[in-house]
Specification:
single chain, alpha/beta, Rossmann fold, 3 domains, six-stranded parallel sheet, 26 helices, 22 strands, 37% helix, globular
């Protein structure tokens, strides 16, 4: 029985278990729009900017496993690219579907810049940031390309895919029974894989001989669905565990083996554990500069390093610094390890455990001075209170980047069952509002907390209307530090003056309480730290969506963090990860070092 191709597309999407599609309608996608509107098993969410569609779909995928956005041709497609890049860099599986001009209007290889109205060669534009991108010119190939796109979005290292459908193709009647499907290549892995066995034996032998081992766990563990194997393994190995920021919600902060989240902005204890280790087993982390610092040769320099990653390019970029690279899916590695765990000889490393936990307790991120009453609010103290007041099933979606968000991620303490994520790699301003909407919908409308900077909050501010329309239980804490605090700090440090980062340098922001009122949203303002806990609880307990404007200490220091210092010769040198700013007194610092300090530490 024949049916319209655009109807087939959304029946296919529905069969994947997708319950929501994020969209902004347009003439170039009119048949797709109509079919989505008629699909009784999918709710369409009308965003007010295509970038928001893409980011909402990305966040939806973080919770549900797959997100979908539908946009029109030309600017509809180009507006999504920031969200597509975020999905690409954070390995998030998403399907982006776009309308396109009819086939006879395509410019193809004519050498012109445009033929059809609003025509853009979107496939060429997004090909470098998607796993698969195709324009459907043959209606009978629609099933093949949809199935291939979904397979590639989820297979291997996940990521976004793009299906571009010309206007006349959308309207064609097709017979689904006659469509050719995609046949993925079967690469069955033998249960008793010799290579896997040899590699795991090598890792176990390294663990058996290590005195100060740590496991560094990344988001690849969640992406591969290997959490249960991971929990089994770390309990069996009984070694200290570190988490990357993208994987910060894999374990709660009170987990006995967890030391913290190391990196260039990190608790001192986590970095001391990492840098003093003699073996680092890294699973599902790409080791970006935010984690290693800008001198990878100093990263874990006293340790043998084992890196398990599905992407050979990520292994190759650090080939001179990794002792045992293992190109493998985290789930395959962890499940295989669990099957061979009897070879591991559990040793007494209690002294190392005690040292790691001592570091964790002795160097907290939130300090007494952060809790002192002040005219304005400390992001450290605000984060501590939000952490303590949230429930185990809450969603936490920090905004994009900047000092406030970095400090929030640094100081936040995860509870068991919570999901916490942000745009880790790209750090795009404007992530917060649409991401909170997408995540909240994917979770079945759980209470969602979004902490965002006042600068980033303005990008995609139009989505407050989407929030109002959907009446989602999202509580926004907007960190009002009068502009772009991280840029302001950088400008003052390097140039001694400001440009476009606050009101004094030409950039202003509106009154958020008034903005919220224009969108018919509940809003309030926190002016100081007097009864801060009660003020936070009041926001969390308010029904529906809430915008809370929090007046912050405008230029609060971001610490502990990696920095540079002037040596005895007057030269600026980058410090290794163990030596974070504010710098400890040298006597105290040396007492924390097991491996020999570098000359930069002297």
């Amino acid at each position: 029985m024949k049916k319209k191709l655009s109807n087939y597309v959304f029946e296919f999407i529905s069969a994947l278990g997708i319950k929501h599609v994020f969209t902004l309608v347009g003439g170039g996608a009119m048949h797709l729009d109509d079919s989505l509107g008629q699909c009784k098993t999918i709710k369409y969410v009308c965003n007010l900017h295509e970038q928001a569609c893409a980011i909402s779909a990305e966040a939806y995928a973080r919770i549900s496993g797959l997100g979908v956005a539908l946009v029109t041709t030309g600017p509809g497609g180009t507006n999504t690219i920031t969200g597509v890049v975020g999905s690409w860099q954070d390995s998030t599986p998403c399907i982006f579907i776009s309308g396109q001009v009819k086939r006879s209007d395509l410019m193809k290889d004519k050498g012109v810049r445009q033929m059809g109205m609003q025509e853009v060669d979107i496939v060429t534009l997004v090909s470098s940031v998607t796993k698969y991108a195709v324009t459907i010119t043959d209606p009978s190939s629609i099933r093949y390309h949809l199935e291939k796109a979904v397979h590639l979005a989820k297979a291997g290292r996940p990521g976004p895919v793009w299906i571009d459908i010309p206007l006349d193709v959308q309207a064609v009647d097709i017979n689904p029974d006659e469509l050719e499907g995609f046949q993925e290549k079967s690469e069955a892995i033998p249960k008793d894989d010799d290579q896997l066995n040899d590699l795991i034996i090598k890792v176990i032998d390294l663990l058996n001989s290590a005195e100060r081992p740590v496991i560094l766990a990344g988001n690849g563990i969640r992406l591969s669905g290997a959490q249960e194997y991971f929990y089994t393994l770390i309990d069996a190995l009984n070694v200290p565990v570190l988490l990357t920021w993208p994987a910060m919600d894999i374990l709660p902060d009170n987990y006995p083996l967890l030391v913290g989240r190391p990196g260039s902005i990190a608790p001192r204890g986590a970095n001391f554990a990492l840098q003093n280790a003699d073996l680092i087993l890294m699973i599902g982390t790409r080791l970006d500069f935010a984690l290693t610092g800008y001198a990878p040769e100093k990263f874990g320099r006293g340790a043998k390093k084992v890196m398990v990653d599905i992407d050979p390019c990520e292994l190759d970029k650090l080939k001179n610094h990794i002792d045992l690279p293992i190109c493998m899916d985290a789930k395959r590695f962890l499940s295989g390890f669990c099957e061979r765990i009897d070879r591991y000889k559990r040793r007494d490393i209690s002294a190392w455990h005690n040292r790691c936990q001592d570091w964790k307790q002795r160097y907290p991120v939130v300090l007494p001075e952060h809790r002192q009453n002040n005219d304005k609010v400390s992001i450290y103290y605000l984060t501590e209170i939000i952490s303590e007041e949230l429930q185990s099933n809450d969603l936490v979606v920090p905004g994009s980047s900047g000092f406030g968000i970095e400090i929030f991620l640094l100081a936040f303490k995860v509870k068991k069952g919570q999901r916490v994520f942000n745009t880790t790699a790209l750090g795009a301003m404007g992530f917060g509002i649409p991401a909170a909407i997408g995540a909240c919908l994917a979770s079945g409308k759980k209470r969602t907390i979004c902490v965002d900077g006042d600068g980033g909050f303005q990008l995609n501010i139009q989505e407050l209307e989407t929030l109002h329309r959907l009446n989602l239980p999202i509580k926004f804490f907007v960190l009002n530090n009068k502009g772009y605090a991280s840029i302001r700090s950088m400008q003052n440090r390097y140039f001694g003056q400001r440009m476009g980062s606050d009101a004094d340098s030409g950039m202003t922001l509106p009154d958020l309480v008034k903005v919220a009122a224009a969108y018919n949203l509940n809003a309030c303002r926190i002016n100081d730290q007097v009864d801060l806990r009660a003020q936070v609880k009041r926001v969390l307990e308010m029904p529906g969506p809430v915008i809370c404007d929090v007046l912050m200490r405008a230029d609060e220091a971001r610490a502990p963090s990696l920095s540079s210092a002037q040596n005895k010769n007057g030269l600026m040198v980058s410090k290794p990860l163990e030596d974070l700013w504010p710098f400890l007194k040298r006597e105290e610092f040396f007492a924390n070092m097991i491996i020999p300090p570098l000359k930069e530490n002297l």
